[in-house]
Write a structure and sequence with these properties.
The structure holds 3 protein chains of 3 kinds. In chain A, helix 4 crosses helix 11, helix 5 packs across helix 7 and helix 8 packs across helix 9. Chain A is built from 12 helices and no strands. Helices cover 75% and strands 0% of the residues of chain A. By secondary structure, chain A is mainly alpha-helical. Chain B is α/β, with parallel strands linked by helices. Chain B has 2 domains: 157 residues, Periplasmic binding protein-like II (D-Maltodextrin-Binding Protein, domain 2); 147 residues, 3-Layer(aba) Sandwich (D-Maltodextrin-Binding Protein, domain 2). Chain B has 18 helices and 10 strands. In chain B, strands 4, 5, 6, 7, 8, 9 and 10 form a 7-stranded mixed sheet that branches. The longest helix of chain B has 18 residues. Helix content of chain C is 71%, strand content 3%. Chain C has 12 helices and 2 strands. In chain C, helix 2 crosses helix 12 and helix 7 packs antiparallel against helix 8. Classes of the chains: A mainly alpha, B alpha/beta, C mainly alpha. Chains A and C meet through helix 1, helix 2, helix 4, helix 5 and helix 6 of A and helix 1, helix 2, helix 3, helix 4 and helix 6 of C.
Chain lengths: 283, 413, 285
């Protein structure tokens, strides 16, 4: 199970055993590398800088963790981000799941157009999505703000939801639905009693992905934001003059939340004794 | 061992593990003063409740002010508090949302021009742009006219050098906020010599560690002066020569062309020498890096000022006037100047700082007294500084476009 | 295909999402195209003059930046592949019961905001920061050495930020490989390396293709890395920086829109060439 198959069949010599160590060591080093900015972020969330700079270690404090909650400069962007992420997740997950169902359960003409419409927003560079939206707002004289950001986030999330949900639907055993049809003889009941419970994990991971993408989006948001600040926009703005400890504090809290979430998920998997692939990526 | 002691033991250990450089004495004193508060107060329940209860509940009455970074006095204990603004709120009952989001004049104008052109609110009640931006905004009808009957402090206290500048000859739309000088900043430990001239900035010895400005007027201004041309008299041909001079440096000499973010790079030691604003450097010495020095190049520096203006379309004009008037009060202006290190537009501030030095000496606070004594003469431009610095040119739209096009080649955008 | 119910149901299911994508994706692309053909200045207003000349103009002016962006993104893609492959391989074949845990740990840092991660790298890599300050103290690196604001630093930042986009598809592809095939290969060819190249790598190609595209496309349009780690040095700007500045700073919408469309075209050409070369149609996932 653990050793490479070739090694399992023969008795490895010293060279082969050393060679077997290369990959795990490399992976370990890479993990260290991946976590280094996170480590620095956590360390400097406890820094106590005197001026505006937070680049040299000047003293240990936990004050940063208590100070920021009353400051609307920090809390307002955070609340904006959470609101936009929540609403865009709900809307995009609903719309995207509907499209996913239509694409896997129904035959209709022009399916390839639909596939392109889903596919292109995922593959286009973010700056293109953002910039083209800006031209829409500017041309129509729409005042940029909370609502324009929300519209943009729903847009880019729909495609990701469709892809995730469709993968789940495609892998689903349709004979269950057929049995359901025979028993209930009603499409709606079959959907809610059979299809939905089965694809629910897929919908859930699509929603999580949408939430993660939305709350972390900088590029597309920048073009649609006007003067409304979301958390990533705020971070980028204040950090042009050095990273204030508050940024690292919030980053650390986000990291710990993700860590706890993933820990719970792994624990649940261990208990269930099965492994489900998880493809959630923050960007 | 008491709680306090064990805590400081832990902090000290961690400090020693992580500390890489020495902090300035003043920084240390500020920290020491605050130290006792850090754990004790922050963890008590009432302080937590208080912290949670504050977020701007009366948003509509809040005065929103967009300003440059490093342009306000900061409380020595709690860096999120600005004493002079708090005093304003106490006196007038108007809460202030203060934002340091203004980093570059041209970017600022681009960011708000689309909204203002459409007649939409910018979301701000007071903004602090530079002179040429004021002129542009006023010309487009984007600024509220000031009602001087509501600015008695300005009438009484404004210094002559801070009145009637070219961009707003009658102060119809703007009053001075603070002013300063564009010159060079450097860290002698990194340059390994004293810096005196603009050409030092172009010295190959500082390749990759020299910083330019993204502000066209500042960058061309200093270059023109190094060519012996006063920016006010510069022709497009002069600017072309300035452009050639900047383009002649090898690729990679300038690490970047910075907006106000040069502060970070300079304080961190990523820049050995760069174009800089005078007051930023005084604050850097105070707070972040006491090795850095500011110098007016021997060919001359640029003098400028930022202004308080009220944008049209939805600003609370009444409250905004109160803020403008407040900062022309001698006490408020002194509070500000004792921290920010720029030129003040208010008469009597220098004398007040000198008086505060005496008071501090009387209270046996020699550190503060020495600091105030050194500061007092610097908050008004000296005759020498006026002789060695020059104002911006008033550019026509054509000239502005030509200068900008020439500058775009320099910064590669 | 069987149906739950025929008729208008699929239409109703498709309608809201499709409408949203049309209004906020297709229509804006059309607007961007129209704006690229306008002339004028922000102060005087833009008029549609069908000025197709803008395209040769911006390409002539900025071809170097497209070139640089493609090189940076290609280098980053190559590096993520070189770094990500062994890791995905190790997790898939040697991870055992820890497979999922390891995969999640690899992805974990990327839950922290892209902007925050990049800013912290800037701090770590600053001239006198944790890494180079230390090396300078030891005398290993010259005192005036700098890494930030160099092309290498931007490629480094892109590589870091897009690693999970490479590792995840690689893992999925490698994990699917039937190990008995490799065993059979080692029995036949006798060399593990040959077995790797002729079996494992070939079978993981779909993952390589998907990972490369998922890395290259966002990397080529990225501008934050060049802004933060490149420290605003114009010599390391990518085309995204120019597009962003033209749209948001100089308000030169026509040129910015044209630059954007050229970028789309460049990406499409490169992606088509690449998928043809690899001979895979993995794209239509």
């Amino acid at each position: 199970m653990t050793a490479a198959p070739a090694a399992a069949t023969r008795r490895p010599g010293l060279g082969a055993r050393l060679a077997n160590l290369v990959l795990p060591v490399f992976t370990g080093l890479l993990l260290l590398f991946l976590f280094s900015p996170i480590g620095v972020m956590i360390a400097f969330s406890f820094n106590d800088p005197a001026g505006r700079q937070n680049i040299t270690w000047q003293g240990f404090t936990v004050r940063n963790y208590f100070d920021l909650w009353g400051r609307s400069q920090i809390t307002t962007p955070m609340i904006n981000s959470l609101l936009i992420a929540t609403v865009s997740t709900v809307v995009a997950t609903t719309f995207g799941t509907m499209i996913g169902l239509a694409l896997t359960r129904f035959a209709f003409r022009g399916r390839w157009i639909m596939n392109m419409l889903i596919f292109i927003p995922i593959t286009a560079p973010e700056i293109i999505l953002g910039a083209s939206l800006l031209t829409l707002w500017v041309s129509l004289g729409v005042e940029r703000g909370f609502l324009t950001i929300l519209a943009a986030h729903i847009m880019f999330n729909i495609s990701f939801v469709v892809v995730t949900v469709r993968a789940r639907l495609a892998g689903m055993n349709q004979s269950l639905e057929e049995a359901g049809m025979d028993l209930y003889a009603d499409g709606r009941t079959t959907f809610w009693k059979i299809t939905f419970p089965i694809i629910f994990p897929g919908i859930l991971s699509a929603a999580l992905l949408a939430f993660a993408l939305s709350i972390d989006d900088y590029v597309i948001t920048l073009f649609s934001a006007g003067h409304t600040l979301t958390f990533p926009l705020w971070v980028f703005g204040v950090s042009r003059l050095g990273i204030p400890p508050e940024v690292n504090v919030l980053g650390t809290l986000i990291f710990l939340t993700a860590f706890a979430f993933i820990g719970v998920q792994l624990w649940g998997q261990r208990r269930q004794g099965r492994a489900a692939p998880i493809t959630l990526v923050g960007r | 061992m008491s709680d306090q002691e064990s805590r400081s033991q832990i902090e000290l250990t961690i400090d020693n593990l992580l500390r890489r450089d020495l902090i300035s004495r003043r920084t240390f004193m500020r920290r020491a003063g605050r130290g006792g508060l850090a754990f004790g107060a922050a963890l008590t329940l009432p302080s937590l409740l208080a912290a949670c209860a504050t977020p701007g509940s009366s948003q509509s009455a809040t005065l929103k002010w967009l300003n440059w970074p490093a342009y306000i006095d900061i409380d020595s204990v709690d860096e999120s508090k600005y004493p002079s603004i708090l005093a304003f709120t106490d006196q007038n009952g108007i809460p202030v949302e203060y934002n340091e989001g203004l980093l570059d004049n041209a970017d600022f104008l681009s960011a708000y021009a689309p909204e203002l052109r459409a007649g939409n609110s910018t979301g701000w009640d007071v903004m602090s742009p530079g002179g040429w931006v004021v002129e542009r905004m006023a010309r487009n009808g984007w600024l509220e006219e000031l009602d001087h009957s509501k600015l008695p402090n300005w009438t009484a206290n404004c210094a002559d050098y801070a009145k009637g500048l070219w961009f707003d000859p009658d102060n119809k739309y703007s009053v001075w906020w603070q002013g300063g000088i564009t010159g060079l900043a450097y860290d002698p430990n990194l340059t390994e010599r004293e810096i005196t001239s603009f050409d030092d900035l172009l010295d190959p010895a500082f390749s990759g560690r020299a910083g330019g400005f993204s502000d066209m007027r500042d960058m061309f201004g200093l270059t023109l002066l190094s060519l012996g041309v006063h920016p006010e008299d510069a022709t497009v041909d002069d600017v072309k020569r300035a452009q050639e001079k900047l383009l002649a440096v090898p690729e990679g000499h300038f690490r970047g062309f910075y907006d106000n973010s040069y502060y970070d790079a300079l304080a961190a030691g990523d820049l050995a020498i760069c174009v800089a604003w005078s007051g930023d450097v005084s604050q850097m010495i105070l707070n972040d890096n006491d090795q850095v020095k500011f110098v007016i190049p021997d060919s001359g520096g640029l003098r400028w000022n930022d202004n308080l203006v009220i944008p049209k379309f939805g600003a609370n004009v009444e409250n905004a006037h109160k803020l403008l008037n407040y900062y022309y009060d001698k006490a408020a202006a002194t509070m500000l100047s004792e921290y920010v290190g720029y030129f003040t537009p208010v008469n009597g501030v220098s004398e007040q700082i000198a008086a505060d030095a005496e008071t501090a000496r009387g209270e046996d606070d020699a550190e503060t007294a020495d600091y105030y004594d050194a500061l007092a003469p610097t908050v008004v431009p000296s005759a020498d500084q006026i002789d060695n610095t020059f104002p911006d040119k008033e550019l026509t739209e054509d000239e502005e476009k030509q200068w900008n096009d020439l500058f775009e080649k320099v910064i590669g955008a | 295909m069987r149906s739950l119910s025929r008729g208008i149901t699929p239409l109703l299911l498709l309608l809201p999402g499709t409408a949203w994508l049309i209004v906020f994706f297709v229509v804006p692309m059309a607007f961007m195209l129209l704006i690229s053909l306008q002339q004028g200045t922000f102060d005087t207003g833009y008029q549609l003059t069908w000025n197709f000349g803008i395209y040769p103009e911006v390409i002539g002016q900025y071809w170097e930046l497209y070139w640089r962006s493609a090189i940076f993104a290609l280098a980053a893609t190559g590096l993520t592949l070189a770094i990500g492959y062994p890791v995905a391989y190790t997790i898939a074949f040697r991870g055992g019961r820890l497979k999922n845990a390891l995969l999640l740990i690899v992805v974990l840092p990327f839950f922290v905001s892209f902007v925050i991660r990049t800013l912290n790298w800037r701090m770590i890599l600053s001239d006198n920061g944790i890494v180079f300050g230390f090396l300078k103290d030891l005398g290993i690196v010259a005192p005036d050495f700098h890494f930030l604001a160099t092309p290498a630093s931007v490629i480094f930042g892109l590589t870091y930020n897009f690693l999970p986009f490479m590792i995840l598809p690689l893992y999925v592809a490698i994990e699917k490989i039937d190990r008995r095939l490799i065993e059979a290969a080692t029995d036949l060819y006798a060399s593990r390396l040959q077995a790797f190249w002729r079996v494992t790598f070939v079978l993981s190609l779909p993952g390589v293709v998907a990972g490369s595209l998922l890395t290259f496309i966002p990397a080529v349009g990225d501008f934050i890395t060049a802004e933060v780690i490149g420290a605003g040095n114009p010599q390391v700007f990518m085309i995204g920086n120019i597009i962003q500045r033209k749209f948001l700073d100089s308000l030169d919408y026509p040129a910015a829109a044209a630059l954007g469309f050229v970028l789309v075209a460049v990406v499409m050409v490169l992606v088509t060439v690449y998928t043809r070369l690899v001979g895979s149609d993995q794209l239509a996932g």
